[in-house]
Amino acid sequence: MPSKTKGKGMKAGSQKKKKNVGADVEAKSAHRLAVLEKELLQDHLALRRDEARRAKASEDQLRWRLRVLEAELEEARSEGKAVYAEMSRQCQVLQKEMETRSRQLEEEVRGLREQLETCQREAEAAREGAEQALRERDQTLAQLRAHVADIEAKYEEILHGSLNQLLAKLRAVKPQWDGAVLRLHTKYKERLRQFGLNPLDL
């Protein structure tokens, strides 16, 4: 039979050996855990660095894009100012041209109104003159008609008087003419007979 002392010693050695194995396992686990944590931290740091690089690249790209947009905006502002200045200049030119044209049209209208008033006055004067001339013509024609009628009456009276006087004179001298004609007739008949001519044959 084995002794009790030896059994106790073996039992104590086995427990000690178990303790050492447990400590080694714990140490290895701790080391493995530390290694894993380090790797995780390194991966996390690498991820952070990669994110930071991407963020920096995005920031640089955004800054570049912002500078481009600011340049384009400034160019657009400059072009807008130039366009506004040109439009303002053209607007001023057009406004001056419109003002000049408006003054010219006002002067033309004023001149045309004056011409119209002058023509109206001249037309009114011409109408009044024509009416006056017509009245004077009618009055003159009436006077001439009356004068002609008076002259015709006087001429008719004179003519009738002259004819009456002439007829009276003719009546007075008719017997003398008849005697003279008869004497001349007899005289010429006698001469014809002297020449051997018969007056009845002539």
Automatic annotation (TrEMBL):
PANTHER family named in the record: COILED-COIL DOMAIN-CONTAINING PROTEIN 153
Source species: Panthera pardus
Alphabetical UniProt keywords: Cell projection, Cilium, Coiled coil, Cytoplasm, Cytoskeleton, Flagellum
Family membership noted in the UniProt record: Belongs to the DRC12 family.
Domain of life from the UniProt record: Eukaryota
Keyword Repeat belongs to the record: no
Subcellular location: Cytoplasm, Cytoskeleton, Flagellum axoneme
Compositionally skewed regions (Basic residues) per UniProt: 1-20
Positions of the UniProt region annotated as Disordered: 1-27
Protein name: Dynein regulatory complex protein 12
Broad class of the protein's primary localization: cytoplasm
Complex and partners: Component of the nexin-dynein regulatory complex (N-DRC).
Biological role: Component of the nexin-dynein regulatory complex (N-DRC), a key regulator of ciliary/flagellar motility which maintains the alignment and integrity of the distal axoneme and regulates microtubule sliding in motile axonemes.
Coiled coil: 59-143
